[in-house]
Model the fold of this input.
Amino acid sequence: MSDLNARTSTATPALVLIAEDEAEIADILIAYLRRSGLHTQHASDGQQALSLHQTLKPDLLLLDVQMPVLDGWKVLSEIRSRDNTPVIMLTALDQDIDKLMGLRLGADDYVVKPFNPAEVVARVQAVLRRTLSSAPAATQMLRVGAFRIDLDSHEASVFREGQQHTLDLTLTEFKLLACLMRAPKRAFSRTELLENCLPEGDTQERTVDSHVSKLRKKLEALDVQGVPNSVWGVGYRFGVES
Done:
């Protein structure tokens, strides 16, 4: 099993931010990357790419050079001033000077349009294998759909309508959400959630229902429906597609 596969099977799939203003190209890349088991988010201009990079902290950025508002070179330069997120440049230009520009600014790879989407996926996986395997102990991060939990900083957030919303959760609510996100398709019994998420002394299964209800109301306030999802006769599962 490769380093990348080992990471995605035991933790959470890598998140790839696609900065591409041509919707058709972006849709193709999203489809191919998701088919390979990766999560994606899309930015349609350079400013949005910087904003999403700051809030989502993706594992890799696919960055088109000829972007509106801010071009790819400016986006890459700004990102390199603050961190080392792997970046693969996408461009219609096939000039050595452009390749050298990208490498000089800190790009990790370079793909020229028109490209084979399967080749882009292979490049993405190769860069992720290299960077994830050589990185120091990674931040423990859970991502499911629009949800993101940083287990190190104890922060939970959800991405809605182009914005990242930090969730104001109690410790028990945070533990419940994290437990469900670790296995989003699994139905957890109330007993399991009681043992794993609630403080010692809470021994009543109905206490789980109370905490789940409060968590659900906080998410509904952000127009997130059905999380956590009730499973009749069992308990709860996370409730959205991963």
Summary: DSSP finds nine helices and twelve strands in the chain. The longest strand covers residues 155-160. The chain has two domains: 3-134, 141-237. Residues 3-134 form a domain with the Rossmann fold fold (CATH 3.40.50.2300).
